[in-house]
Structure formats: C-alpha cells, structure tokens
Amino acid sequence: MKTRLSTGSAAASPVFEDGVEKGRSWATLSETQPPGWGVEGLTFSVSLFFLLWLTFVAGESISAKENTKGSGVPILLYHRFGSVIEDNMTVKTTVFETHLKYLRDSGYTVIPLRLLVNHYLRKGPPIPLRSVVITVDDGHKSVYTDLFPLVKKYYIPTTLFLYSSALSNASYAMTWDQLRELRGVGLFDFQSHTIWHPNFNIEKRRLKPDEYEKFVRMQLMKSKERVEKELDVKVDMLAWPFGIYDDELVRIAAETGYVAAFTMERRQTTSSDHIMKLPRYLMVHTGNNLLPF
Ligand SMILES: [Zn+2]
C-alpha cells in the first residue's frame, strides 16, 4: 500500500504482448545514454566475463523466446561498491556500471523485485522476457555514495535489504536521512534483512527452542516495523542473513507477515521455486573477476 517502488504510478499501465512489455518501461535501460567503456584491464576482463556469464545464466530466456513460460530470472545480489577493493564483497563501482551497460545493451529489462514477486504470487502482470532484478543487502554507505548516482543515471529499480540496527548507528552504514533521500527518487524499494543480521544456525544451538522462536520472531517483526516507521513504506520481503533458512524459519517468516524471502543460491528463479526461498546470485570480487563462476 505504501510501497514506493511497485507497479504503481509510472508503472500503472504497462502494455505486455507475448510477455514482453511494449513501449517505454520505467525499468528499461534502453533509453539511457552509455558513458564510455571502462579502460582498466580488470574492468574490461570482468565485464567480458560477466557478459559470458550472463549469457550462460540467461541462456534459457535467450534460447526460448517463443516460450516465455518457465523462463528463469536472475536476481543479482550486491553488497558494497567502491573505487578500490577492500574485501571480496565489494564490487568496483566501474565494474558495476559495466554490468548495467551490458544489461541495457543486451536488451534486458531491470524489473522491480516487487513485480517479479507479484508475478509469482499471481497478483501482477507478466514480466518481460529478458528480465533481471537487482538487490543490495546490508545498507552499506557506498549504496548512497556509489550506487545511488548510477541508479539515477540508468534509471534502474533497486531493492535494498536493510538490517535496522546498523542504520544511523554503525560508521559503515547509511543513515535514515540518506535512505529517505533515496526514497525520494522513487526507484528504491526497502525491505528487511532482520535487526542485527544474526546467524540463525548459531542462535538455534545457543537458545532453548521457545527462546529461539521468540528471538526469530523479534528479529523479523521489529526490523519490519522499524523500516516501515522510518521510511513510511510497506515491508513484506526478507533476505535471509547469510542465506540461512529452514522450514521453521520459513514458517515464522510467513506468520510474521512476509510474502517472499531470498537466499543466496546461484541460479535463476522460476515460478516453481518456493516463494520464501528464491535464489540470488551473490556478486563478489574474486581477484581476477567479480563473478561467482
Ligand atoms: Zn547481509
């Protein structure tokens, strides 16, 4: 209802034909002008690698143009951005931009995560044939400094999964005011990544069963409430911390108001996936390239 990035407003009446949206899409990349290609060797080799990788992961969509049903959708998961690599969860900002340019130039449509989830829940329209989703976990400050300008430049819908205890608190995290500024451009969706990013496997061993369930409920409910209150948005999607989930966690998430949740398994999502276990490709820096394979 309060969600800023949904199928509302500019996306109120997209026209789809054979699963492909016709005309201008708020989410399409095709109308933005590309800046020059990065010239650094690393950037270039990584972007080539990314191209090959994306061709591979999206192969089903590419080779099955007549058959839009059953096509998978890659959900990309980023964490941090920067001009230098400080850890393997940082993707160079220039490399990230080559990803966006490749997606645009190859006819991909970056769609809001909400659109994909509504489609899977049979509450929304079909999605474009060559769809891809961008998500970013944790709420790192480089989302504001590095990602934000590129989101505006390429006009890409982006979902942020936030763990609320860090915001306006940890030096590495964004502030609530910065998040409200992001909200203002209408391209970001804000969802939950729990309160403090616990490892549920460790907590399950540490706590008695009833204490553990109470702990999980608190992590899922309070984070949702905090993000909703601070940003005036609706929160009903969850990124599992460390990708950890099991049947009990899935049950509690559904009971506390979540309609979809996301893991870190490296494959495309399909409509046959469990809605509380949708896979995402973790994008990391691995030395010679940033890609998981
Ligand atoms: Zn995380």
Task: Explain what this protein looks like in three dimensions.
- This protein is an alpha/beta fold and 293 residues long.
- It has one domain (37-282): TIM Barrel, CATH 3.20.20.
- It has 9 helices and 12 strands.
- The chain has helices spanning 41-57, 59-63, 93-105, 113-120, 142-154, 176-183, 200-206, 209-231, 247-255, and strands at 15-17, 20-22, 75-78, 80-82, 90-92, 109-110, 131-137, 158-162, 188-192, 237-239, 260-262, 281-282.
- The strands form 4 sheets. Strands 3, 6, 7, 8, 9 and 12 form a 6-stranded parallel sheet that branches. A two-stranded antiparallel ribbon has the order 1-2. Strands 4-5 form a two-stranded parallel ribbon.
- Helix 7 crosses helix 8 (209-231).
- The protein is globular.
- The termini are far apart.
- The structure holds zinc ion.
- Zinc ion binds at residues 137-138, 193, 197, 241.
